[in-house]
Amino acid sequence: MDDELHERVREVIASVPAGSVATYGDIASVSGAPSPRLIGRILSEDGHDLPWHRILRADGTPAPHLLDEQLQRLREEGVLADGQRVDLRKYRWQRDPGDDAGLGGLFQLRLA
């Protein structure tokens, strides 16, 4: 993985606002990463300063080893889970096209 992709992934994760969640796949798609697994790897190795708790699995659940802390952090932001699952239809991050400029044109490149 090159440094540019690594930084794009970090920028996209950092842009997920409080009260919203995204999936590993959402972040991979927006950043141009080849796999959602790469997002998890970046978060585990270099995500301590990012809002890692806002990134969930495709079914709306946290990784098992992060479950309690992740759901607690999300609750503090107003994201409520039904058991251990967050309703992605309700809380999933909906990017505002006006936010594209804040990511260095990343979205324009991906949509062109």
UniProtKB/TrEMBL annotation:
One of its GO terms (biological process) is methylation. It comes from Amycolatopsis coloradensis. Keywords: DNA damage, Methyltransferase, Transferase. Residues 5-79 form the Methylated-DNA-[protein]-cysteine S-methyltransferase DNA binding domain. Signal peptide: none annotated. PANTHER family: 6-O-METHYLGUANINE DNA METHYLTRANSFERASE (PTHR42942), ALKYLTRANSFERASE-LIKE PROTEIN 1 (PTHR42942:SF1). This is DNA methyltransferase. InterPro entries: ATL_DNA_repair, MethylDNA_cys_MeTrfase_DNA-bd, MethylDNA_cys_MeTrfase_DNAb, WH-like_DNA-bd_sf. One of its GO terms (molecular function) is methyltransferase activity. It comes from the Bacteria.
